[in-house]
Amino acid sequence: MYPLHNLGMLFGGAVMDGQRAVALDALRSLARQSPSYDALVMVALARFGRWSELRTMRPRTDSPVIATWSAVALGLALLDSALTGPARTQLDLADALLETARRATAARGQDSEAVPRAVLDLNRMAIARGILAGELAAARGEVDSEVAALESAVAAERVLRADLKRRPQNGWALRGLQQALAAQGKSDEADRVRREFERPWSRAHTWLPGPRLRLGLR
C-alpha cells in the first residue's frame, strides 16, 4: 500500500545491521521510481565502501542537498584512488553549494515557513561536507596527537551512546562504541559491547573495521 515508505524502511533496517545487498536493492528500487534516489545510492555505496562502483555513477543535481551528497560520495571514491586533486574539486563544489544554500536561507527571513526545512537541509549538507573534508585532511597526514585522539574517543563515546538510544542495535554505532571504549582502556566494557555488536551484525554482508569503512578498504 505504501511501497516508497516500505522500501525506505527496508533500506534503513538493512543498513543498521550491515545487509549491503538488501539495502542497495531497496534504494535502487526507489531510484527506478524516482531518479533523484540515485544520490542516496551513491551515499550507500560510500557507506559500504563500494568505491569502484561509485566512481562509475553520474552525480545528481536535483537539489542542493542531493548535489552535495553526490559530490561528497564521489569525492570519497576519488580519494580512495589517491586522486586528491579531483577529490578536492568535489569538496570545493560542496562548499559552493553550501554557501549558496546559506545565502538563500538567510534571504528568506525568519518568518518564512520554509526556514525549518532549509536549516535541516543546511545541517545535512554541512555534515556531508565535513566528512569529505576530514578524509582529505587525513590523506594529507593531518592526524591528531595522542592527547587529542583520547579526547576524540571520549567525545565519540558520548555521541555513539546517544545514537544507540535512538537506534538500538545499530551495528555501526556499536562497533564505534567498542573502539571508543577500547581507546580509553575500558577493556571489559569494550568486550561486552563487542559481543552485543556481533548479534545484529551476524546477517551482514560487510566486514566492519569501525563505525565507517576507511578509504582503501574494498
In DSSP terms, counting alpha (H) and pi (I) runs of 4 or more, how many helices? Answer: 10
Please report the total strand number as a whole number: 0
Mean pLDDT: 82
Q: Shape from CA axes?
A: globular
Strand content: under 5%
What is Rg?
18 Å
Report the span from N to C terminus: 37 Å
Helical residues, percent: over 70%
Largest β sheet strand count, sense and barrel closure: none
Query: What string gives the helices and strands in order?
Result: HHHHHHHHHH
Output the structural class: mainly alpha
Can you walk through the features of this model?
- This protein has 218 residues and is mostly helical.
- Among the domains are: 51-139, no CATH class; 146-203, no CATH class.
- The chain contains 10 helices and no strands.
- Helix 6 (84-108) runs antiparallel to helix 7 (115-139).
- The radius of gyration is 18 Å and the shape is globular.
- The model has no long low-confidence stretch (mean pLDDT 82).
